[in-house]
Amino acid sequence: MKKMALVLIAAMLTITMLAGCGSNNNANNGANTGTNTPGETAGNTGGEKLSGTLKVLTHRTDFISDGTMDKYVKKFQETYPDAKVEFEGLTNYATDILTRMTTGETGDVLMIPPSIASSEYSKYFEPLPDTMFENVYFPDQAAFEGKRYGISSGVNTSGLVYNKAAFKKAGIDKAPTTLDELYADAQKLKDAGIIPLYMNYGAQWPMGSWGDGSAFYVAGQPDLTSKMAADNAPFQLDNAWGTLLTIARTFVEKGWVENDLNTNNWEMSKGELAAGKAGMYFLGNWVIPQLVTAGASSDDIGFVPLPYDNSGKYNAPLGSDYLVAVSKNSKNKELATAWVDFFVKESGYVADSGFMPIDKSQKAETPQLSEFQAANPTFIEGLPNDPKFSEIANKAQIGIGSGNYIQDLVTAKDLKAGFDTLNKKWAEAKKALGY
């Protein structure tokens, strides 16, 4: 999911980001099942002694089906020859994994869902060794009370991923740099018989881009979740939520998105955009390698910040993709810890996914990220979700990270009424929790 040289980003970072994490202390959270300590495992000390079979739950169903995950296992077995790794892909991971967590069917390794409050982490995940976090981005994104429960699987940003050939066919010679240009380009694409923007409404999870996935950087507030936790009515027309949802609703109302909103066409949409039958996504750079796999020429895929107003100067996120964790229910925590460390640093997953490396000393190099950086966005590295924010959202049954409530807002008859409903639920949840 991404690529290109971001040599200047390290100097631009002044904050830290997180998708929603946490956990409690546990008397057994340092327990292991073999002879090596977690620190030794992460450093590959005595790796050949570890053995057994791991079950890994993942959202990357494509990497399972195309054999990419098997490639990682073979490389892992060079250090751990007696290890076996099995994968289970969840097509609607953000929602499905929550059900698994209630039943305890979480395998040995899993991605942490962003809706889990930090106070809940120790119930589900095993602490990872500090040695795993040296010189990496977002080391404390999944930290709670001095323990770290998840490590980033890759660094990414978000914006408009577009097909240059589709733009050319529609008579568009450059990517939009203002909101007015974005709207004008969308109409030109529609007039040319091209789906202007594939929203993937039916897949649900991509809808987060129009809400909790983007509000913090559009607002220019890395601590937005803390501010929301202190606010009885955080959803407003005149703040970042209103800005993003108004754009999304305009695209739907003008017919600038796919005709079939309710069907999950995620896999099909990649082929549509790769072939130039669709013009744009509003997603992260992680999707770029998937478009190339779907048949696009890398030269035809561009990537720029979302022009969410007409200022010409925009913020963009610098954030973590899913955080990888060891399941509290794992029977082989040492081997699972070794897999996590290998997976994020050595397997090739970061490059194959188009991410920027989590290791600060490494640099990604793709033309798409070069184009993105040339637009000179202000990178906002979000802070970890305030635990109160996650608790309030969960109590209010607002599906942060799932995209379901964004679906409702995008197609609601009245956006203000939709916000009013959310604010009522939010305020009631705050009161019930004593916040």
From TrEMBL:
PROSITE patterns: PROKAR_LIPOPROTEIN. The keyword Membrane applies. Keywords: Cell membrane, Lipoprotein, Membrane, Palmitate, Signal. Residues 1-19 form the signal peptide. SUPFAM superfamilies: Periplasmic binding protein-like II. This is Sugar ABC transporter substrate-binding protein.
